[in-house]
Amino acid sequence: MPLPLIAVTAGEPAGVGPDLCVALSQQALPCRLSVLGDLEVLRSRAARLGIAVEFEAGDAVPAHRPGALHVRHIPAASRVTPGTLDSDNSAHVLALLDAALAGCMNGSYDAMVTAPVHKGVINDAGFAFTGHTEYLADHSGTGRVVMMLVGGGLRVALATTHLPLRDVADAITAPLLAEVIRILHADLQRKFGIAAPRIAVAGLNPHAGEAGHLGREEIDIIAPVLERLRHEGMDLVGPQPADTLFSRIRHEPCDAVLAMYHDQGLPVLKYASFGAGVNVTLGLPFIRTSVDHGTALDLAGSGRAEVGSLLAAIEMALEMASSER
Length: 325
Ligand SMILES: NC(=O)C1=CN([C@@H]2O[C@H](COP(=O)(O)OP(=O)(O)OC[C@H]3O[C@@H](n4cnc5c(N)ncnc54)[C@H](O)[C@@H]3O)[C@@H](O)[C@H]2O)C=CC1
Ligand SMILES: NCC(=O)COP(=O)(O)O
Description:
The chain is α/β, with parallel strands linked by helices. The protein has helices at 17-24, 39-49, 90-105, 119-124, 132-139, 165-171, 174-190, 217-231, 242-251, 262-273, 308-324, and strands at 5-9, 32-37, 54-56, 68-73, 111-114, 146-151, 154-158, 198-202, 235-240, 256-259, 278-282, 288-291. The protein has a twelve-stranded mixed beta sheet with strand order 3-4-2-1-5-12-11-6-7-10-8-9, sandwiched between helices.
């Protein structure tokens, strides 16, 4: 059996993505690994950071070994200055995702692991883009996917992802919640090997709506969906007030928390594990994991970017790939 082949997209070239990819050359990893990025950007970032790397190319990707890095060269359009965004390179950033996606869909890659992109500069270039999660769902023809972050002993999934806060309440509908919980439940079983997942579900409003005095979404939407899915055999707790849910699960453990929106769930997880967390997309027809942080333009080319989250993302992708083999 050949070693699993992981595609690592280098992400925004002006951010820390290239620094982290170059740092992978210093690691022993039990896989074949190909970085999708601009070879010259990676070469010059390695030189700037004082890391000696033997760059490899070619269709056959060898076993990863310390000191070397296989690169699938996909050229940037414009010269890259670490820390300075240039919307001329946004098409290149998307081309990295397209190449990784195509390889995952046709079985050439066992998983994709993504370094961070800058959503704003991609939009500045005229592309509608809210995140990898939504982009990969759209471009793989998958209906709904679920973002889940893992770290610090927590798994936190989101009912809605990159949405302005004023749109969140309208997006929390019974069909959406039922679909998200089914995907979360199925992938906790299939990809994380949890036979009977227990999922704690947050309310949307303060105090989970305070019996309807602070909002009715819990009564009208969330609780009925949970009740229906309990009848299908799922172990669901909630809707619980989000402010106390995370302290409650310390003594009433669950396998995952479902938060209603991005900044309800992720600050807790990032506080618990920033720099070592992993973002995983559930519901895709292939494995995709990612770092828990952004482009950190302030650190690009400085040598101060931590590689821990990218390594954790690769390790998780490898675990998931090996359980699927
Ligand atoms: N997976 C992805 O593609 C993600 C992309 N982003 C995007 O990144 C851009 C910047 O987002 P921000 O909110 O500024 O978050 P950020 O994560 O880039 O930066 C927040 C703070 O964390 C530090 N930091 C980030 N990564 C680090 C690392 N590897 N080692 C040490 N310190 C690190 C930064 O220096 C900064 O102080 C935005 O466009 C955002 O959408 C944000 C999160 C994930
Ligand atoms: N906060 C998570 C994030 O912004 C990364 O999202 P995605 O690009 O993985 O969809």
